[in-house]
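Handoff note, outgoing to incoming analyst
You'll be picking up this chain. Sequence as last confirmed:
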Amino acid sequence: MLRGRATTAKTSAMDPAAPLLIFDSGVGGLSVLAPTRALLPNAPIIYAADNAAFPYGTRSEAEIAARVPALLGRLVERYRPRLAVIACNTASTIALDHVRAALDIPVVGTVPAIKPAAEISKTRVIGVLGTEATVRQPYVDDLAARFAADCTLIRHGSPDLVVLAEAKLAGERVDPDAVAEAVRPMLDAGRGDEIDVVVLACTHFPLLAEELPEALPGVILVDGGPGIARRIAWLTKGQNWPPAPSPGIAVFTGTPPPDTLRLSLARFGLEQVQAL
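Most recent structure output, in case you need it:
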């Protein structure tokens, strides 16, 4: 019964209180939430973290393809959003079509920003830094063939960076040496020393905005978050919003977040925490 495609949400009879639903396995989607709030400051926000299955990057394609549409269906039925965002490269490259077939609202996915990276690379050697599941997807092969055919793509899946980003949002200090160690295999690969642009193909990684430039000196980091925010704004153009910002809601499928993470969530406007 929940079916549809990613088309512009209807403006007629749109409840101003209908929220945006932003979904990720953990807190990585906050790197999409931040630029979205900058463009749509009064938009009600439901942020859903499937921490019961975190991290997605080490799970099988079959598990993600089955779990994500079912979970988003439950979230849509509970919160009645006007639009859903899969703020996770892994979930998007595997399950986006399944989700769009299951929901009757627009769905925005998150895919590696290979096209803009190819547009700015001078050396034509691009790093694609994501999860293990994302970097091996045929979807990435297709993006490379379409937009970076004359480039060498060096892909590296790093579950350690995902864990470090989660730890940082939970108030822990991130060791710069640990970040450098996590990206070293990409730099040590053939022609790795020629990389001049790195695609942050995981929404967790922009949360390491202070640490990654130190580990990748002189390299341009491409983050897809602002582009996703612009897409959300375009799809909701002309719709009614509340007259003022409201407290956002963070929903967790597993263990409730510790107090240190709740403080970080509050800085992103997510002042309420609920369980699914």
